[in-house]
Amino acid sequence: MTSYEANRGHARRKKSKNFKRQRDLIVQCARTCFERKGVHKTTLVDISREAEMTRELIYYYFSGKDEIVGCVVDSYMQDADETVRLWCEQWESDVAVDQDGAAEPLSREAVTDAVASIRRFVFQQDGTRRSMFYVLDEIGQRHSFFKVMCDQITSTAMSYGISRQIQAMWPHLCNDDGEMAFKIVFLGVIGIMEGAAAREDARIVNLLLSGVHSESFAQ
Known about the structure:
By secondary structure, the protein is mainly alpha-helical. The chain has 2 domains: 3-62, Orthogonal Bundle (Arc Repressor Mutant, subunit A); 71-218. It is built from 11 helices and no strands. The chain has helices at residues 3-37, 44-51, 55-61, 65-94, 108-122, 131-138, 142-159, 162-169, 178-195, 201-209, 215-218. It is elongated and about 55 Å long.
């Protein structure tokens, strides 16, 4: 490879990194605007001002507002995925194995930490839902977001081997199907929180540890 070709390759890589960095900046600024004043009331001018660039430059990076909205939803998914990766790393460090090599149920501490993490993901400190969910409601995507998010989170959890612990903890759920059990429990906890946001985490943990029937979490 000649020095000229090498320099061109370096320039392309540098441009690619800068391009991604600028797109990420625009998405973050759009997310701020959407959560502050709503999707429909936010214009590209608002986003360009937040990002401190011209509206014309926005069009260099995105085809329009709809594409930006999609990328903001993707950023919410990334937040959820990062949250569950942290859970899984913590859970794996707390895994207890019996003399036969089978995973034992999660400890109360691990379940308490998981419930607290879910609450932080769904609610703000004052008990109201995080702004992202108002954005998702406005564009009619909260239900589909939770479905995709749950599938993605379940896939991540299974890759960490959490399924054995789920089966050990709730063996009566879904014929010992750890993946389905995880989905039911995860969505069930969110449902309980949304239905009674003020309920203390300790009460939800006790419910999880009490061997409840699947119907309680399937609603």
